Amino acid sequence: MSDTLSFLKKFFQDDLNELLVNLLMRAPLRSEERFGWMKLIPLMNPEEKTALKANLEKEIAHFEAREERVANAMANTDTEVVEHQ
């Protein structure tokens, strides 16, 4: 158990590792894919981590924008229904 705690303590001392885990938790990924990436983080070099960070931020922004468009479309549909009644 102490090996695991030691690993986690060292892992999260790297701010980029912590950021990547947070981004992976927010990203629109299946659980298997999310945890697969988490397992790879300790094996990545800094350039790979930076590339993953950029890709995750892009995917999250795209997903959030799509969710906002859907919410706005649904709100507009609700408004149109109320106006026609």
Search tags:
about 80 residues, mainly alpha, 4 helices, about 0% strand, elongated
Describe the structure.
The protein is mainly α and 85 residues long. It contains four helices and no strands. Helix 2 packs antiparallel against helix 3 and helix 2 runs parallel beside helix 4.
Topology record:
Blueprint lengths: L1 H12 L1 H12 L4 H10 L5 H39 L1
Helix pairs in contact: 2-3, 2-4
Briefly summarize what is shown.
With 85 residues, the protein is mainly α. The chain has helices spanning 2-13, 15-26, 31-40, 46-84.
Q: Gyration radius, to the nearest Å?
A: 19 Å
Q: Given the structure, what is the number of helices? A: 4
Largest sheet composition? none
Number of domains: 1
Q: Show unreliable segments.
A: none
Shape: elongated
- Give the H and E element order: HHHH
User: How many distinct beta strands?
Assistant: 0
- First-residue to last-residue Cα separation: 64 Å
Q: pLDDT average, as an integer?
A: 90
Q: Name the beta content range.
A: under 5%
As a percent range, the share of helical residues equals over 70%
Category from helices, strands and their pairing: mainly alpha
